[in-house]
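user: Please review this fold.
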Amino acid sequence: MTHLVRKPALMVQGTGSNVGKSVIVAGLCRLLANRGLSVRPFKPQNMSNNAAVTADSGEIGRAQALQALGCRVPLSVHMNPVLLKPETDTGAQIIVQGKRFGAMRAREYGKQKAQLLPKVLESFSKLESDADIILVEGAGSPAEINLRAGDIANMGFAEAADLPVILCGDIDRGGVIASVVGTHAVLEPAEQDRIKAFFINRFRGDVSLFDDGMREIEQRTGWSGLGVVPWFADASKLPAEDALDLARGQGTGAVKIVVPVISRIANFDDLDPLRMEPDVTLELIGPGTPLPGDADLVLLPGSKSTVGDLAFFRKQGWDIDLAAHHRRGGHILGVCGGYQMLGKTISDPQGIEGAPGQVDGLGFLNVDTVLTPDKSLVEASGIHVATGASVSGYEIHIGRTDGPDCGVPMMRLNDISAHRPDGAVSSDGRVSGTYLHGLFTDDAFRRAFLAGFGAASDLAYQNRIDAVLDDLAGHLEAALDIDLLLKIAYAR
């Protein structure tokens, strides 16, 4: 790879998925930004249905959005040039440099992913031109050697960009010595040499108890130990990217908001601000469990496969539960795909989500949706019509929704191209839908919306996230040998 300017950089890889790489990189981004460096995050390939809209009108994984916040820089499609958004158990939509590239089954993508490496390297080079240092996050683990051929996510990219690597092991799940030493054992000699150091994440208790473990790993691998990172409880307050995070604590407030967890749930970080509200109980309902009868609000979240998730919703009997909730006087809110489900029909004439055709919606809103190939990717702000509160967020969806209930929109929005209504409200005022994601991160809207249910809110959500990032940076500064980490990055 030829660079006009070769900048310091390093790549954080892991012994497996969910070992804490994303949070660690976000914390390191903030740590180095606090030292006055211009930092950029980068992940060659991510897999997530939690996406963020960028300033350059594309989409990237939510983890890179958090990392960019750690860097205090705007989002760019080049921070995550390949995003895989699962649509089925075996297939995904492929996003390249922020735009839809196509849809592929896993086996097909495995054969073609190497062709995307030039785009990945192009994005990395663009970030280099603007940064003092780049922090790169791997995906999964380099120990998944069955995926090594054509790899662009871990060692394949590290080789192509000539990056030094540090390895993250998670002691909380057990067997961390075996996972780190085992990773060393299955790598090729050149890949072993590319890893310069390792660290242990999520240690509970006295970290000195693992001193012998660190020495053992150093002796068996030849890698330097950067340190042991103690458990950071406030990591749970940061925006979630992985569906595994949906099981996190959900509060005990008086206002009960119920969320049915559909099979292709997307952008579920919409829920995070509600999770942090002391007056709110956020209850997530999994498959096979009825929606409880005491909810104040049932919130239908976004979906990567609206038609498929509507069938899934009905299969659980949730359509019956939702009708009973509404008869009891309960409120319903649908966001994006959830909004589409609440209408009378969803038409897919071009077969975007499967076979062409039309399905009946849940019928709570007098609107109809037509799925179209063009995707709306835009940041927007405006007002919540019912309360007059300001609101901001982003849209990331396919499809157009129209009908009589759109005559009373939930929002009036402004974006780069238009002043327009958004969403719909039912004639009884108890069912609403919107295409606006991120609405609950807006303190003014969330405060006004929850006040309608009798909940008080003084949470400054974005300030809270920023404070957690600063605390995380201090946590890592105390735990890791940052001077050695920088020496590795600057030796590139």
